[in-house]
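Researcher: Please predict.
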Amino acid sequence: VSHELNEKNDLYISAYLSKDAFNLNSDTLFGYGNRNASLRWKHTYNDKLTGLISVGHTNYEYQVSSEKDLARAYTLGFDIYQSFLKAHFNYYFGPKHNLNFGLNTLHYKLHPGSYLPFTKESLVEADEIAAEQALESALYVSDAYTITDNLTLDAGIRFSIYNNLGP
């Protein structure tokens, strides 16, 4: 969904949801799903500077399960969650020269794996890898200059940092 609030501000909302399950002619069931949503705000400061601020969240899950033999029935799975914030700016010097700059940060939270009994009757011993989380952030700037119709010089630099936040 996009909406023009006024001549200098636009708002965009997007979302996606999927959930799939299948088996390959056996008792094993495979499933995976995605969920994500984002909100973006574009602001025109003047005829030279525009900005785009984005926030959002994504989730991916995967699961395999088998229940044919109740004593060995299990569920195996993992998931990853990501939340992000991005700020991107463009400075228009003229038809042949643009400067892009911004920052972004991404928070990861993942459950790398679990092996669990499918039912109370299952003799499968639960085993779960501890959850992990991290933060990845970056600052960047790039400059594009069109020298001729067939040649553009585009140079930039990006500083990234990754922080392991632990369980």
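Model: The mean pLDDT is 94.
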